[in-house]
Design brief:
The structure is a single chain. With 214 residues, the chain is an alpha/beta fold. It has one domain. Helix content is 36%, strand content 26%. It has a seven-stranded mixed beta sheet. Helix 2 packs antiparallel against helix 6.
Length: 214
């Protein structure tokens, strides 16, 4: 399974489970959302001069209803997914994806997530080393990022073993999305850049692009 196939499968399962009513607060899900569209550029240029950064594709966006209405009724989360195959493990660093997550904080996402997904063939001691090192970096700097490190056990149903934030032997997609939702519902875990009025204005652009009611 490649990174692209994993994202597609994750998206399909989330949509399927959403239709079955398994996510009480989930209102929308997007995959491979490109923010470099002309529509986004036109809206962006109304607020700021210059062009967007060159890489503005988001792996996955989850839109939850926010019952606390910290800013409004929407909680917009962004997930950066990095897939590690047996070929990738010798090429990719333990901090893969971190810079993308931090960079997208300025676009006004409420929640940030970095998800490291390891293929079934990778030995668990290798995964533990990656997960512990990345976890230490995030916790040491108190970064407002939900870090998931999981290994695929069943590619068809995406059953996974979790190594970070805590060790869990086997769960499906629904468990991890609910976990992510609960984490972001805590105001202390949200994007601190939203305290800046300019970042909140960029969030308004996101809402327009994602057709989220004001």
């Amino acid at each position: 399974m490649s990174e692209r196939k994993f994202i597609n499968k994750l998206y399909e399962l989330i949509l399927k489970e959403k239709e079955l009513g398994k996510y009480g607060w989930l209102r929308g899900v997007y995959k491979n959302k490109n923010l470099s569209t002309k529509e986004f550029q036109d809206i962006w240029s109304e607020w700021w001069k210059g062009r967007l950064p060159p890489r503005t594709e988001v792996d996955m966006i989850l839109i939850f209803e926010d019952p606390m209405e910290v800013l409004d009724k929407a909680l917009i989360g962004r997930i950066e997914i990095e897939y590690f195959s047996t070929k990738d493990i010798t090429k990719k660093n333990f901090y893969e994806g971190l810079q993308q997550v931090l960079a997208f904080s300025i676009f006004g996402f409420d929640g940030l997530c970095l998800w490291h997904m390891f293929s079934p063939e990778i030995e668990e001691n290798v995964i533990v080393n990656y997960a512990n090192t990345m976890g230490e970096l995030i916790s040491g700097f108190k970064l407002p990022i939900f870090y998931l490190a999981t290994k695929i056990l069943d590619e068809k149903e995406l059953r996974m073993k979790c190594f970070k934030p805590s060790q869990i032997e086997e769960e499906g997609v629904e468990y991890f999305i609910d976990w992510l939702n609960r984490y972001w519902m805590n105001e202390e875990n949200r994007n601190p850049r939203l305290k800046d009025s300019e970042i909140r204005n960029r969030r308004k652009i996101l809402k327009m692009l994602l057709k989220i009611p004001v």
